[in-house]
Amino acid sequence: MKTRSLRTYLLVGIWALQLVAVLPALICLGVFLRNDFIEEAHTEAFRALEAASWSLRGRPTFAGAESLDKALKEYEQRTGHRLTYIVGGKVMADSGVPFGDLQQLDDHTVRPEVKAALTSGRGLHRRESLSLHREMIYVAEPVTGVPGIADGILRLAVPVSEIQLRGGRVLLGLGLVLGATLLLAGLAARRVSRILPDALESMAATARHLGAGNYGRRIRHVPWQELQPLAETINQMAENIQARSTELESRRARLEALFKALHQGVILLDAEDRIASMNPAAETIFPPGPHAGRTLLEISMQPELQHLAEAARSGAGRQIREALAFGPGRVFEIGAALLDSPGGEMLLVFRDIAEEDRLERMRRDFVANVSHELKTPLTSIIGYAETLLQVGDPGPERRREFLETILRNADHMSRMVSGLLILAKAEHRAAGAPTDARTDLASVLAEAETVLRPQAEAKSITLELDARDNHPVPGERDALLEVARNLLDNAVKYTQAGGLVRVRAGLQAGKMVVRVEDNGPAIPEEDRERIFERFFRSRNQAGQEAKDGGAGLGLSICRRIIKSLDGDFWLESPLDRAIGTGAAFCFSLRTLPPGEPEMAEKIL
Question: Which pLDDT score is estimated for 365?
Answer without folding.
Answer: 65
